[in-house]
Specification:
126 residues, four-stranded antiparallel beta sheet, seven-stranded mixed beta sheet, 0% helix, globular, mainly beta, 11 strands
Length: 126
């Protein structure tokens, strides 16, 4: 069982930045691939970014150039640095982990993941 604890959400003005953190339990974090998703009320969960256990990264088109995903295998933590935030980025953000070795192409699909953390609210004011 992997537990994911998400932190770092909050309120920021448009154009500002936030960094989300997701701390994972387990001794083999370095073998997990990790992803960030977001979900607005009444909408499907939307892929934001993912990082494979090997370090390969993938981003949604809307995230490219604004968001950066990274990981610290010593701290068992994955980060999402969000810059140039827009009001339309306002929603709840979720962290997810997959413990199997999967291809980077599958990391943009929510059903790939085995574990999910609780969401954190990000609100961007205009």
């Amino acid at each position: 069982q992997v537990q994911l604890v998400v932190s770092g959400g909050g309120l920021v003005q448009a154009g500002g930045s936030l960094r989300l953190s997701c701390a994972a339990s387990g001794r083999t974090f370095s073998s997990y691939s990790m992803g960030w998703f977001r979900q607005a009320p009444g909408k499907e969960r939307e892929f934001v970014a993912a990082i494979r256990w090997s370090g390969g990264r993938t981003y949604s088109p809307d995230s490219v150039g604004r968001f950066t995903i990274s990981r610290d295998n010593v701290k068992n933590t994955v980060y999402l640095q969000m810059n140039s935030l827009k009001p339309e980025d306002t929603t709840v953000y979720y962290c997810a982990a997959v413990v199997r070795d999967v291809s980077i192409a599958t990391l943009s699909t929510a059903r790939t993941y085995d574990y999910w953390g609780r969401g954190t609210q990000v609100t961007v004011s205009s």
